[in-house]
Amino acid sequence: MNGAPLQLSRYFVTESNLAANKSFRQNESATLDSKLIGVTAVCNEMGDHRQWEVTLRLIFQPGPEINTPYFFTLEIVGFFQVLPNYPEERIQLLIQTNGPSVLYGVAREVIREMTARGPYLQMFIPTAAFSPKQTEELASSGKPSA
Description:
Bacterial Protein-export protein SecB
C-alpha cells in the first residue's frame, strides 16, 4: 500500500450542535435530502504551499414541513500536508477536492455518533463528492450549498 499524497495531520471539531426534533413523526419516513444540508468548505494555505488548513461546516436546519429526527450544525478544521514528491502544479486541485472530502467523512461519523445517543435512530448523512469548482464557489460566496 502506498501513502496518499495528502496527509491529514490533525483535526478537531470547533462547533457541534445537535437538537432532537420534538415534532418528529416516528411512524412516518424520515427525510434527509442532501440538498437540505448546507455545506461550506474553505481551504487556506498556511505560508507553505504544502501546508493547508481546511474548514468544513455543515448545517441541517430544514423547515417544519420536513420530517426529520434531528437538526445539526457541525464545523471541523483539519490540517493537511502535501507530500514533497507531489507535483507543485496539482496541489491546489488536490487540496480542494480531497481536503473537504476527508473531513466530510469525519463529519459523517461525528453526526452518526451524536445521533446514536439521542432518542431516535442514528442518522447517517449522505455521502458527497467535492470538486474544486464547488469548493471555490462555496468559499467565495460564503453561503451554504449542498
